[in-house]
Each structure stands twice: as C-alpha cells, then as structure tokens.
Amino acid sequence: MPNIIKHYKKAILLALPLALSACGDDTKEVIVEVEVPAPVPTPVDVSYDVTVINLTNGQPVSPPAVVLHADGNLWAVGQVPSVELERIAEVGDSESFLTLGMTSAGGEGPIMPGDQQTISVTIQDITDAKLTIAAMLGNTNDAFTGLNAWDLSQLEVGDSWTSNRPAYDAGTEKNSESAATVPGPAASGEGFNPTRDDTGFISMHPGVVSADDGLSTSALTVEHKFDNPVIRVRITRTE
C-alpha cells in the first residue's frame, strides 16, 4: 500500500509540469497600439510698438487705429472708403475699424501738435501680417492720415522702420471747413454723417484753405493749415 501511494504521488508530480506547460501554450501576447497625440506647441507672441508723432501746427490727430490683417487693403487711394474708415475720417471714431483685422489696438486719446503716442499690438505665431493705421486730422471735414497694409515680415526682433505720412481725403464730405461740419476743437461741429456729398473715393488731401486765405465760410484759420507730411510713424518689433 505505501508503494502504491508513492507511485500516485510521483504521477501527480509528473503531471504538474505538463499542466503548466499546457497553460503556457494557451497564453497569447497581446500588443495594444496607443496613439499618442503630438505635443501642442506653445504659442509665441509677436509684438510691435507703433509710435505716431504729430507733425502739424494746429491739427489734433485722433487716437490712431492700428490693425494687423492677413492681406488686402483696409483703405487705399482711389478706393471707395468703407463706412468704418468714414467714421474715422469724419469724427475720429475707430471702434468699428478696429474689428476689421486679426488683432488691433487703439490709441488712448488725441495726439496734439508736437506730441506723440506709442501703441502696442500683439499677435501669436504670425510674422508676416500687414499693418494698417488710420487717424483723423480733427480740424477738417474728412481728412485722415495713416499707413496702408505695410508688410511686417520685413522686421526681425529689435528692428525699427520709420516713415513720414501725408494727409488723405476720404471723399465722403465736402471740405467746406464750416463751423457746422468740422468736429474738432476749432469749430465743434457735426461729426459722422452717413450722407456722402463729395467725390466718393479716397485721394490726396488738397489742404486747408482757411478764412485767412479767402474762404469766408471757413471756421479755420491759418494755424490749421498743414503741409505734408502730417505724422511720423515708427514701427518697432519688440518680440
């Protein structure tokens, strides 16, 4: 009887490796492929300082509108002015004009003769935006000045570019220079008027005549006259 028990114990022990081997044969290696998303790059700020200097003797310049956009023109000589530009040219209101691009920034107040103002504007990851500026000459009917779609790809960090800019006529209101139609401090007349009664297209401004030089209906004097350029613009890429 003890021999039989030993025999069965040996048989059981021999069977265990076979059972374990059989279990091993049934085990399959499963490879699960997990797609790992590429890391999202951190946005890089591209920033510019835009300095506007008033070169006139008696024309306040409205708070400049600085707009960065992808392509095209927000205004140009020979074009029909948009309502957004008309609001700047007739009353210095840039609120709607500032919505026309990818990003924008406006000045904080008028720039008086001889003064200057710096406006900072930032966009992410884009170094080839176009920069447009527009601001009104306050003691006029619809004169404005600025810069049209300047290519910012020309500037590396630390670079600056300077340009003297002339006055343009929006062509939306006759240059009557009357007390009723000039909104600036020289007359405090009407601002924006949606009715257009002039050429209807943007051109170079002919300048102010004034009452001193024979326009009897003019509310302006010789001090409000101007020669081109009327502003100096300096653009600096800061980052």
UniProtKB/TrEMBL annotation:
Keywords linked to the UniProt accession: Signal
Keyword Cell cycle, does the record have it? no
What residue range is the signal peptide?
1-24
Domain of life of the organism in this record?
Bacteria
* Keyword Signal tagged: yes
Where is the region Disordered?
164-198
Return the NCBIfam families for the record: NF038123_dom
Q: What protein name applies here?
A: Spondin domain-containing protein
